[in-house]
Amino acid sequence: MASQDTPLLIDTSDRAAQDPAVAGGKAAGIARLGVKGLPVVAGLVVTTHAYRLFLKHSGLDAILASTVEGKDFRSMRWEAVWDVSLEIRNRFRRARISDTIRDNVLDSLAAHPQPAPLALRSSASSEDAPGHSFAGLHDSFLDLPDAEAVVDHLPLLFASLWSDRALLYRSELGLDPSHSGMAGLIQPMIAGRASGICFTRSPMDERRLMVEAHDGPGIELVSGEAEPARWTVDRHSRRILDTSGSDIALSESNILDIADLALRAEHLLGTALDIEWVLPEHSDDVLLLQARPVTSLPGADENAGAKPWERKDRRPWEMSLRRSFGQLQELRRRVENEIIPAMQADARKMHETESTTLDDQGLAGEIKRRLRIYRDWNDRYYEECVPLAHAVRLLGQVYNDRVAPDDPFAFRDLLVGERLEGVVRNEQLEDMADLLRQDPALRESVGRGEAPDSSALTSLLDEFMERYGELTCHTAWCAQGEAAVLDLIHELSKRSRRSPRIRSGGDAERIFLGSFPEHEREFGSELLELARAAHRMRDDDNLALGRVEAALMDAVEEGRRRLVPRLGEEARSLSAENTERCLRDPEFHPDCPQCVENRGDGPSARRDEVHGQAAGPGIAQGPARIVRSREDIYALRNGEVLVCDSVDPMMTFAVPLAAAIVERRGGMLVHGAIIAREYGLPCVTGVADATEIFQDGEMLLVNGEDGVVRRIGSGGRP
């Protein structure tokens, strides 16, 4: 660790710059290579002592301790980790750089002038060491116009030690970020006719190295924005073995110079490297920008045959979710115009085959076919729909960086008012409930379970079942059909209509767009529109996938029904795979058709007050309704607090009945939080063991402002 006597800034030629504890791994690597005579882009290092001084003077050291206290990042979902990181980044953004640090940076750059524009590259003390590689996990800032801009970006550089991907990776390695430090490497930007990266050992074959290049900044390759040209070189013979990718005007001599320089760096640092290089304009002399060890994530080979999101440890996949603005725009186009419509079309086609008309062998084949279709779409959902949600996070990050609000989640107000399909569906339910509110006699007859004597209600009900009927499977609706819908609208009619929030287009949007200079305002508008679309599709794509799943389950339920005489009631819990096999093979009997998890409800889990994440503002109270499955949601009654493991998109039809939502899953982008904000309901997410802590009927006070859920007395007082 850097001592109190360590300077705040040092030159890369300074001996201390070779110490990762002082200069961070990235800067230390450049310093060591420069001392050995390799052509590096030298510069100045903002030491880890400056980072720790910043934490002390701003009070962030204590705030960080309380923010991450008790959080197990290994068990948290990506949405929750995103939120923690976003809150930390906003606190860093709002903190003031001390005059001591500011003056040191300005004075050092004046004494050692660097040609503008400048690059400020992250260099963490725990990164780029053997066994660790934080490539792309921390933030660097390019094309900064002057020293003042470098100072202004230091808080965000320091904050990137706590980025969501860095938190996930450190938890993977068992590293504590509070024991790490962040340094910064200030370098001149080098205008190059080509730039790229070089892996001294190819990820495909360690006997070879790989050079990638394109005619723009190297960061575009690292982020995946650019398609590189690629050369594979034999490490020993130095022969180019293969060329692929885009065209770029680099000679064989250029490629071999890069390869030779990379191998010299590997020899000096004693480990395989991932090197970023640049070929300056009007020169054939390659320069090294940075060099870091190549390593694979621990556990990356675990469950190697499974999809990344299906593995026991999903963190490597979760770390890969970030996308660039351009990539997000393309994802939005595909999800909105191709994936969702195609899901809906496949669901309609599957429903064209009546499961009840097939014999057992035909039904088994139909289940197998539908299961394959569902799995294909489920894969597409994780590959493309989930990463699109990053557009919302990107909006939050840009909003906070430009506006620096007190509330790191103030940007949520920019997202409400989208026409989520789930909200459109719920509005149709409220339209039917309005007819009952206006006609007491009709309301009374529906409450008795009688068929509605109203052409208007019958017409709306038929329209609703035609459009959304298949989404009712996995709930009581699947068996009860129209009767269940009528029961729901009768419950809705007991209180006034609850309408979704309407976007005002007021101060938040004006403040956000007004924070951009005129020449960047178009980007701000495009980002806002993209994030709103991604927020809407976070609901819509799930409902589209739900339609595909419902078509699958229509066939599975028919198969289960036929198997009850042979297997008994346990047949109703068979998986799709076992249902198909039992139908195909009359002799097959699954070993464990119904394995019920022991949820436990011990007294040790019960607490009077729990803390989670404030995901929907407001305060409300009501009796708890514990919902452990889709079937349980049908029991929710008006004014109850919905307490669940997660709010499935197929469950959100009942949300307008709730007084508030408490969910085990954490994060601003879980479905419970999204639908709660649309209706202005208090919502607290990330409450561990939520369904075990509370019991049905207990009075709860839910504070969506500070993330607290409290059990209260029968009189309704805390």
UniProtKB/TrEMBL annotation:
Pfam families: PEP-utilizers, PPDK_N. The keyword Transferase applies. Its EC number is 2.7.9.2. PANTHER family: PHOSPHOENOLPYRUVATE SYNTHASE (PTHR43030). Catalyzes the phosphorylation of pyruvate to phosphoenolpyruvate. Its cofactor is Mg(2+). This is Phosphoenolpyruvate synthase. It is an enzyme of class 2 (transferase). It comes from the Bacteria. It catalyses: pyruvate + ATP + H2O = phosphoenolpyruvate + AMP + phosphate + 2 H(+). Residues 598-622 are annotated as: Disordered. It comes from Oceanidesulfovibrio indonesiensis. The keyword Flavoprotein does not apply. Pathway: Carbohydrate biosynthesis; gluconeogenesis. Residues 637-707 form the PEP-utilising enzyme mobile domain. Keywords: ATP-binding, Kinase, Magnesium, Metal-binding, Nucleotide-binding, Pyruvate, Transferase. Residues 612-622 have a biased composition (Low complexity). Residues 598-611 have a biased composition (Basic and acidic residues). One of its GO terms (molecular function) is ATP binding. SUPFAM superfamilies: Glutathione synthetase ATP-binding domain-like, Phosphohistidine domain. InterPro entries: ATP_grasp_subdomain_1, PEP-util_enz_mobile_dom, PEP_synth, Phosphohistidine_dom_sf, PPDK_AMP/ATP-bd. Belongs to the PEP-utilizing enzyme family.
